[in-house]
Structures are given as structure tokens and as C-alpha cells.
Amino acid sequence: MALLCASQLFAQNNQPMTIVIDPGHGGYDPGAVATLNGKQYRECDIALSIALKAGSMIEKNMPQVKVIYTRNSDKHLSTNKTRDLQARVDIANKADAGLFLSIHCNAAKATSASGAVTLIMGESSAKRIQQNADVIEDAYRDDLVDMSDAATAAAVRAYIKTVQFTLLQNSSTFANLLQKYHKNAVGHGNRRSLVYGQPLWVLCYTQMPGVLTEIGFMSNKHDLQIMATEDGQQKIAKAIYDGFCEYYKIYFGGEPQPIEEPEQVEVKTDVKAEEPKSQPAESEAPQQEVAKEEEATDVGYTIQLCASKTKIATNSSEFKSYRGRVREFVTDGTFCYKYCTGIFASKEEADNSLKEVRKLFKNAYVVGFDGNKLVSHSVVAGKLKTK
Q: What are the structural domains of the chain?
């Protein structure tokens, strides 16, 4: 089951969806260094330039998305490597971001290695670990969680299992979309695996979907010639932007622009949408009463808990204490099944209930409905005003 708890990709309470972009390295830590035509290039500079270009495209064309950078200049966040990585994690978690993107350049002992790859949270196979030991520069191992420590490894594996249907599903989608567009920027070179898991610190400890994209090999002349030029960096930034736009559209429907018009949806199940604390769950309520309540309340606000690719039984344990008190809407997009709870006559009332809901569904948010349609807050406000 592919379940996506509702993140902040729709504007709510005047707070837009947030993406945190992390340009790798910086300050005392230049990352990979390579020379081309007598000029030296540093990974930290290339990553920063592309991050700022991609972020600028998002800000310009997607005003409902807030962009936060872990750094916007050549600086480090701590002289201690682990603390530097954790500082990047803390920025993303504090921002309650909906997506985390770390941008790096690759490097290898073999100059023939080329092409873009994108990593998601996971644990490499024994074969992959050996390949990394043979190919990747020693400096990059500092970015990994120490899986040789039994307690740490057990905790990371348990976390990966817990979020495999939520964070990892989203991360994998975004990673594959980036690789789709990287193909026309730097290319895939001789990379056989374009997306694979690694226990990278910034992916294991961020509390949202995230990827680390290696845009090419500094050690490869072809890749470096692209990454080192303004035109090449612009193409890579555009690839990242295009991947993000498609990710947004897949998970949340519609084009990447502010949501103003209502979505056309159909209610598939008749379930009680009220959220009274002292009344029985929907499964215990007579169907006739439920029908009357839905007929009487044709416009208002509700709280979206999550969205899914596939139908979820409204009494599923996925909904925790809200099982049986969930209403299903069907919208456009890949994650077309939206599950909501509660009916509220005012935005203020919905916001007050949202605080309680978020104790179980951290990224729940308020949406509007008009009969069998999910609509924007402004549509609901206009309808209520004319009543």
C-alpha cells in the first residue's frame, strides 16, 4: 500500500509547502576537487551554484512553494563533520519541510566513471559496499551513518522498515524523476544503478521524503565540462526543477501553480465525517443518520489525514483512532484517494481541531469541500458568505 500522509504541499494558514535544498560541503570542506584546462573546480562551489539556480526557478514559477537553503554561500555549518551534517538535518526538521534535496558531485578513482546517480535512504548490499570501497573517494565515507555499530544499525533498519510505505515511497518517486531529467543534462554515463539506497546521515535523520543527487563525476572530463560551465549548470538546475514539478503534480494533482479553483472529485464511500469526541465511531452509527448529516452539511471545512495511490478501507488501522470516522474523496493525480475527517462550519473551528489531529498525523491540514468536491478555502468562504 502506498500511503502519503498529507504534507505541506498545499498552501495552508498562509504557510506554503517547504522544500529544503542542501548544497553539499562548503567552507573548510570543499568536497571533490578537479582541474580542467588548468582551472581548479570545487564540488562545494558547483553544488551551491546549481542549488541556487534550481531554487530560484521554483520560487519564480511556484509561488506556493517555500525554498530554504542549508547554506547560500561558501560556508560550513560546523567544523565537526557529523555536527555539520546534523545541522543540515536540523534545518529541514525545524522547517517541517515537505521535501529534502541534497545536491552533490561524485568522484571516483577510475576516471571512466561517469553519469548522474541519486540516492535515497536505505542500506547498500554487500556488493555495493565493496564497489564503493573500491571506487568512491575516502572522504565521502564521512557522510554515511556508521552501520558497523550494532545499536545504530538496528535503529536505522527499524526506521527504514517503519517509513517504507510513506517517506521511502515518495523519495523513490522523486529520485527516479530526477534521473529521468538528468538524462538530458549530464546523462547517465556508465552508471548501471541510477537510484539506490545508502545510509547517508542527511537522509536517515531528516523526517520527510528526501534524496541526495550526485549530478556527475568531478573525476570524469565529460561530466566536469558540463558541471563547470554556466550553460551546463543551468541545464542541471532545470532538470532538478522539472523533476520537482512532476513530483508535485503526481502526488498532489494539477499543475505547479497556486490552487485557486476547486478540484472535481467524487465521494466513494458513505462514512461519518463528523469528529465528535463523545459520540460512537461511524461503524456503530446508523447509515440513515450519516446520510442525513452529509445532506445537511454541503459545504465547509474538513481535515485531510493522508492520500494514497490505492483505496484504503475507512476502518483501516492506518487511521489510528480516526478509523471509522474517515471520509474518502477521489481527485486527480496518482495519489488520488484523499482521506479526511471532521466537518467544520468555520476555518477557525477546523484549525482548532487540527491541533489535536496533528498529534497522530503530523502533516495533516485543513481543506475545503463543497458537496462531493474538495475545493479551496476561498471557495468555501465565498459559499458560506452567500448563505
A: 3-252 (3.40.630.40), 266-386 (3.30.70)
